[in-house]
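Lecture notes, unit on protein representations.

Consider one protein chain, 293 amino acids long.
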Amino acid sequence: MPFSLFVQNVLNGAGLGLLYALVAIGYTIVYGILRLINFAHGDIFMMAMFFVYYGAFLTPIPWGICAVLAIGLTILLGVTIERVGYRPLRGAPRVSGLCAAIGMSFFLENFAIVVFGGRPKPFLYPDVLDKVVIIAGIHIRAITFITPVVCVVALLGLNYLIHRTKMGLAMRAASRDFDTARVMGVDINKTVSFTFGIGSGLAAIGAILWAARYPQIHPFIGVFPGWKAFTAAVIGGIGSINGAIAGGFLIGFFTIMLVAFFPSLSGYKDVFVFVILIVTLLLKPTGLFGELE
């Protein structure tokens, strides 16, 4: 394989892995606090794409501003879903929350079909993202270079939020012991809503970058990336932010490099991902990073 092509595949793998990591964090931080798997998270990912699509298609607002507004709307959507769909069931058995999450996923998918239509749509994005960047003689598409940069900045911002702010401290306290955190003065409702908002915002960033890489969207586009991201969270250790990042990076990088080096096996790339999941759980049932952070 030529060196330039190898570098291209490394960047593609890193970018895809970090996109999975952004979405996986949404699963893991919600589970870390509520012990709830938010199965609607992949559909929140999908809604962010449509927010950008219709903002850019129906209004004269510049694409960049549409993207920022879409992230804000997606955060609002995540907070609303928590307030309407999950908070009333917080004291109920966990199976009730699980059923609510599955129901919310179906609701968002069917809402998107009715409102946005079931036909795939071409995702609009600036031509600058298709520009070819030349680095050390290697030709790289701009979005391939931008994706890991944006993802790393978002993850560093999340790390600062979790470890250097009062809200981050409240989130870590709630993940350790929900009831004790409440007794110590943590506003649980505010903390949980904030957690859903952060997870949804990261999913929106991932969704916009994903759609710019694979520019065709439809109401079910979030299903498979959502399952892959959930798999990444489980491989890394559900509830662990570092585990979600490691699991997402592992899955994305492995997927791209498998196709690059063994193209005859490209049709089985998803099979290998779930084989990795099974092997990981057999060897380390709590995931690569073990217990909750």
